[in-house]
Amino acid sequence: MTLPIVYEDDNLFVINKPAGIAVHKASPTDPQETVADILVRERPYLASVGESPLRPGLVHRLDKETSGIMLIAKNQSAFLFLKEQFQSRLVKKEYLALVYGHPKEPKGTIAAPLGKIGAKQTTQLKGRRELVERDAVTDYATEKSFRDYTLLRVMPQTGRTHQIRVHLKSIGCPIVGDALYATGKTKPPGLDRMFLHATTLSFTAPDGKALTLEVELPESLQKALDTLE
Predict the structure, then answer these.
(1) pLDDT for 17 beyond 80
(2) What CATH number has the domain spanning 5-226?
(3) Residue 133 and residue 126: Cα distance in Å, rounded?
(4) pLDDT grade for 193, boundaries at 50, 70 and 90
(5) From CA 8, how far away is CA 192, in angstroms rounded?
(6) Is 63 noted as a catalytic residue in this protein?
(7) Catalytic residue (choose from 30, 63, 139, 207)
């Protein structure tokens, strides 16, 4: 597998990650091939960039079943610069998500801390005070409404694991095809994955240039949309 390059300069490059591949291994013995494996194979210098050999050049991540735009640092100074932007919430991220049903409000902000139970994140922390709460904020706006679904543009202000997936479920609109948070629900004809795609990143590059980079929906997701009424 090769990774499509959306943009590249001396300090960074941006890929369009396919769905179905993890960004990095969970441990050194994890047998699955990941984005990190492909990156180091194609660009061996990345092995020395970052804070862990498991995450070469990676300043953020996407879930395995999420596709879309992802930023990679090419050197350590760029890594530290970009990491600081993410930590300071200066990087603007946008996703498209097809959800079941319709939100009560066509646009809004979901502010609910996340805690982890096993593999799942949850916003329901009452009575489980041993869970570590982490603040999480997600903005959303309706792009298009269908009979049984809604296409949302989602703008997370924080970057918690499974944040978008859990927050949308918390308002009664889990993401179509989400095997963890929308079990037992049917998908539109021909859709064989979760409908969550990272479309846009806006940030300042280490050279001071303000960048806004965007990728289109994958063909499989667009075809699924075209079948809806």
Answers:
(1) yes
(2) 3.30.2350.10
(3) 11
(4) very high
(5) 31
(6) yes
(7) 63
